[in-house]
Write a structure and sequence with these properties.
Elements lengths: L2 E3 L9 E3 L3 E6 L2 E6 L2 H14 L6 H10 L4 H8 L3 H9 L7 H16 L3 H11 L9 E4 L5 E4 L4 H5 L1
Antiparallel strand pairs: 1-2, 3-4, 5-6
Helix pairs in contact: 1-2, 1-5, 2-4, 3-4
């Protein structure tokens, strides 16, 4: 049976078997032509996020590249620094921490078949600046439900 160790994916454990690709000789050695590389990569990505083990740095890099995201952008979305994400990718076999792992899986799942609402929400959260001494004021309405009110200004509070 025809097989090919697909190291071109950036992953060490991916093999193509049977059909969907051709091996041919080139002036530079063995060459491989793959039918529907995009579909193959989606299948690999879906397999990765479905595995019951933490993702590692090489898998993070594969998924990030498939989502066409920069290290900086993805780091911001998942709440890590760009340097941290770079280190995760550099140490190919290092496991990604739980929260980042779960967010990455959710982002990729949405990227391949969702409507984008998770990514938009995470991007919006990443843009928020931490506010010091944020006040939230609530009052009880006539219908007995609590509701948020605008915070009074400093002048109003002193009165």
């Amino acid at each position: 049976m025809l097989h090919h160790h697909y190291t071109e994916s950036g992953l060490d454990n991916i093999y193509l078997v049977g059909s969907g690709f051709q091996i041919h000789e080139t002036p530079y050695g063995k060459g491989v032509s793959i039918q529907d590389t995009e579909g193959l990569h989606k299948a690999i990505g879906k397999w990765l996020i479905g595995q019951p083990k933490p993702l590692n740095g090489a898998e993070l890099r594969f998924l990030r590249l498939e989502m066409d995201s920069t290290q900086r952008d993805l780091a911001g979305i998942i709440g890590a620094t760009e340097q941290t994400l770079r280190l995760w990718e550099k140490h190919r076999n290092k496991k990604i921490p739980g929260t980042a792992d779960r967010l990455l899986r959710a982002l990729y799942a949405e990227y391949t078949g969702g409507d984008g609402h998770i990514r938009r929400m995470l991007e919006k959260l990443a843009e928020l600046d931490p506010l010091e001494n944020t006040r939230a004021c609530f009052s009880k309405a006539k219908n007995r439900h609590w509701k948020r009110e605008l915070a009074p200004s400093l002048d109003e509070r002193r009165a």
